[in-house]
Amino acid sequence: MDWSLVGILLIMGTAGGFAAGLLGIGGGMVLVPFITMIFTARGFPPELVVHMAIATSLATIMFTSLSSVRAHHKHGAVLWPVVRMLAPGILIGSWIGPWIGKQLDASALALVFALFVAFSATQMLVDKKPQASRDLPKAPGMFAAGGVIGIVAGLVGAGGGFISVPFMSWCNVKIHNAVATSAALGFPIALAGTLSNVYFGLGETRLPEYSLGYIYLPALVVIAAASMTMAPLGARTAHKMPVAKLKRIFAVILYALAVYMFWKAFA
């Protein structure tokens, strides 16, 4: 047992879980670059490390979201009717996202991820709320919105919060409700995306031992255990304090991670 690896993964899971509960983002934007670094250092096939990092991160969100949404639900903040309306499109989109990722080589996928993280960090740093100018759309519009959220989240291995939270805010949903509902949406995103990554990775012969499709199981177990512990703490923090300052700090961290993924794309 490589205890140094376990320790690093525990730290990553702790940070990712807290971020998931605090900001409703699923933790993937933090986890993917660090998992990429670890898989690269351990000599995993270079053409697969980004795919595996995204798939493993997405799988952890299944557990993080359950832990986070339980805390949000206790505060009565989750809008379950909204979850039910967005979930069908999300399930389909989250299956398609990893399929799109499979068509990309590691450099292109790293570039897509870096651009997404840089955009998300800018959105967080500016902290400009979309003007609530309309109500939530009817079923067809919610299905389409869910599909877009699912495709992007499945492609980059994130929980979709940076799309779903602004979308709900734009539709007159209060920010605490939007964050809590986004946390609940993390589970269907992660479930469909994980099954997709398993399915499309089963035929890959270059994967390291203990992989299930593109998911590296030892990392999944350790990160999920840590993130499930910290996600409720992040969710409780979100209800007790203004998170604007924490968002700015987190945005700077995301910029640094985006730079690494840009380097990975062009190295």
TrEMBL record:
Pfam families: TauE (PF01925). It is a multi-pass membrane protein. Keywords: Cell membrane, Membrane, Transmembrane, Transmembrane helix. GO terms for cellular component: plasma membrane. It is found in: Cell membrane; Membrane. It comes from the Bacteria. The keyword Cell membrane applies. The keyword ATP-binding does not apply. Its main location: membrane. The chain crosses the membrane at residues 6-36, 48-66, 78-96, 108-126, 146-167, 179-202, 214-234, 246-263. Belongs to the 4-toluene sulfonate uptake permease (TSUP) (TC 2.A.102) family. This is Probable membrane transporter protein. The lineage of its organism: Bacteria, Pseudomonadati, Pseudomonadota, Betaproteobacteria, Burkholderiales.
